[in-house]
Amino acid sequence: MLKPNRNYANLKDSYLFARIAQKVAAYHETHPDARILRLGIGDVSLPLCDAVIEALHEAVDDQATKERFQGYQPECGAPFLRAAIADHYRSRGVGVDDDEVFVSSGASDELGDILDLFDRSSSALVIEPAYPAYVDANVIAGRRIVHLPSGRENGFLPEPSDDALADILYVCSPNNPTGAVFGRDQLQRWVDFANEHGSIILFDAAYEAFIEDDDVPHSIMELEGAKTCAIEICSLSKTAGFTGTRLGYTVVPKTLVREGMNLNDMWVRNRTTKTNGVSYVIQKGAAAIFTPEGQRQTQEVLRFYKDNAHILMEALDKADIWYCGGKNAPYLWLRCPDGSDSWGFFDRLLNELQIVGTPGSGFGSCGEGYFRFSTFGSREDTLEAACRIADLLSR
Ligand code: PLP
After folding, report:
1. Residue numbers of the domain that contains 264
2. Are residues 381 and 350 part of one domain?
3. Predicted local distance difference test score (pLDDT) of residue 288
4. What is the C-alpha separation between 223 and 230, in angstroms, rounded?
5. What is the distance in A from the centroid of ligand 1 to the CA of 243?
6. How many angstroms does the Cα of residue 173 sit away from the middle of ligand 1?
7. How many domains does the chain have?
8. In the predicted model, is pLDDT for residue 393 greater than 70?
9. Would 2 be classed as within a structural domain?
10. Residue nearest to atom 1 of ligand 1 (CA)
11. Domain check: are 133 and 38 in the same one?
12. Measured at the alpha carbon of residue 247, what is the angle toward residues 356 and 285, in degrees to the nearest 5?
């Protein structure tokens, strides 16, 4: 008799977004004319930039001609895209070889798949509040999870300590949901800690493109010793609006070795077994992002979301609400006013201001009492939301 993976029974219900949708639908039913402003979404709202669209069209035309038609792409990524990404790292002074870059269909896929590199008995550290996929992927694999809470007292950027001892260390900077970013020295302490204990950091850099401050590393590979303890997982979803187009990349250094096994070699073997590569057309579109014109256009789009962030930050300042994030990240993480809990504040925002955000308690118990706003909405909605927030909460 087949035995199912019983670890699925240990997953907590992921009711966060379902419950939000339910509450919004109920409100809409009783207030059909209300203009509901959505600051909860993690999806982008602007289209792909022109450079990407042109490259996608050209690639589609390639597929229509006998001479230029492309079939299967190499499993680890098309050489033109691996080289473009590695060049991008090198242009920032980070030495990454083309064959240390692996093209993926997005960071979510990679965050789950990469766990194939580690023994089931290895433990995983999750700094909370956290993107929920880290916990769930490890619960499914039956791993022991070490939860490290963070809070306002450490700016949601905990230091490594004995409480953080685990084999796999998830570090997400800029962070979803808190928008907090590790500075160079802080991140260096995590790298040193991982090297000291033989752990491996899974560095989630999905939001690196939002970093503006010079002392904040875009890549963990910038830090001394990272190439013996870290894997970096990146995404073009938020950087370049690829949430529906799907493309990400992962850097697995060739110097990453445990018990005589080379993790780069292992990952090549994994990819050649488990994928047949990412679509040629999409890889061509992605490569356009790394051209000077693509970079310029991408920055323009990011500027738009950053302006949204400033609009919301100003409103929160006026309302005298504590928050972090917003500057180097597309999320604002605020303390619910008047001692309200996360869902209480959700209800208040929905009922009194017709604004939808994300309750912090959905990202781990230490997110209770906090709330997340996203800056990916339309300008119109963001401006209107800012007016309503500043007005109501400053009363
Ligand atoms: N990592 C973090 C921290 C995210 O917030 C997200 C998406 O919201 C992802 C990874 C997944 O990105 P992708 O769209 O590339 O799967």
Report:
1. 50-291
2. yes
3. 98
4. 10
5. 9
6. 12
7. 2
8. no
9. no
10. 206
11. no
12. 110
